[in-house]
Design a protein that fits this description.
180 residues, mainly alpha, 0% strand
Length: 180
């Protein structure tokens, strides 16, 4: 399995951050395997396990911080797109756009709005999880002060959010009529 599914695209900053994210997550998983080997007793040197644990957390932090940067950029692009298309305007805010849309154009516009909303929801979840993962990694590295209880709760929160992202989307349309 490749480290990256496809070659990164975008500005040179975006490409660099995408590579940094991939390298950070590779370091996280790679060094975490050494930690597991140490905990299982296969790797006997405890000092190697401790160093691998720190490197794993630093990799997790770097990958999460890079993903946070990428999600922030994507959110900015989405907001600019929404603004360009006038999706944030209220019905009374029509300054120079008095065009009446027919049903087909209106349906197309609504579908486009919904697609942007779906992308924005995914970006918001990414912002939340990557922020929390960055904080958790720094707390585990003892670079920020956080009680063990708060570290545990943050871990449980992250697990719950990650599980929720795996669930199928809720159907919020009208409930189906019950048949007797």
């Amino acid at each position: 399995m490749p480290v990256m599914a496809k070659a990164p695209t975008g500005s040179s900053a975006d490409v660099s951050v995408q590579y940094a994210k991939a390298l950070g997550m590779c370091a996280y998983f790679g060094f975490d395997h050494i930690v597991w080997l140490t905990q299982a007793g296969v790797q006997k040197n405890a000092k190697v396990g401790d160093v691998a644990q720190k490197l794993s957390y630093w990799g997790w932090f770097a990958g999460s911080a890079a993903a946070l940067f990428l999600d922030t950029n994507e959110l900015n692009v989405l907001l600019d797109t929404m603004k360009e298309k006038g999706f944030g305007k209220l019905p009374n805010d029509d300054d120079d756009n008095d065009d009446v849309l027919d049903d087909e154009d209106e349906a197309k516009r609504e579908a486009e709005k919904e697609e942007l909303r779906q992308r924005a929801r995914k970006v918001f979840v990414g912002l939340i999880t990557n922020s929390a993962q960055s904080l958790l990694a720094l707390a585990l590295l003892e670079k920020i002060s956080m009680s063990k209880r708060k570290v545990g709760m943050l871990g449980v929160f992250l697990s719950a959010v990650n599980i929720a992202t795996l669930l199928p989307p809720l159907d919020l349309s009208k409930p189906k009529a019950k048949t007797a």
